[in-house]
Amino acid sequence: MSVVNPSQRQKIVIVNTGCANISSVRFALERLGVEVDVSDNVNVIKSADKVFLPGVGTAAAAMASIKQKTLVETLQSLTQPVLGVCLGMQLMVETSAEGGFKGTGNIDCLNLMPGHVARMESKGVRLPHMGWNTVSHNNESLFKGIPQDTYFYFVHSFAVPEYEHTLASCTYGNAFSAAINKDNFYGVQFHPERSGEAGAQLLTNFVNL
Q: Which residues form the Glutamine amidotransferase domain (predicted)?
């Protein structure tokens, strides 16, 4: 596995979105030997070398928290590498169908890149999509050293369909975006912090970008 470059001392910030999986992402990064701040302070986020946007729960609740913290414009203005994880990835696109208590209606997301989050179709499989599944990728920076069809851990019922910003794909019922990218913004639908060595490799690759 690649290691984080020790000569490149970086400021890594996890955006405090108010979601529940922040600690697990933080611990995964600390195991790689990097120092991590969790913050919703605009100046701290803007001065970071790398930014993580975590999230679990519903898009509506997460966007309400981000708006309440007045972080939308800050996140849209970032020019350093940003990685959205699970719901954090879904918040990066324009809209999400996960708009209400029953998952009906569209809500506006962060619009960091084009795209729409849709409810997954069951196609004879059980939802939510929970557990290990294989990922195929077309990227040698975020997925450096990770073989095709490596297993990652997923928990979700909504997804971004495959489209021009798809970096990696997974199939569960239908194919969907397992990772997306536009400019400095990256997102992964799976949980790298729960995906063993492959997840640690991906986090390392992102920190080393």
A: 15-207
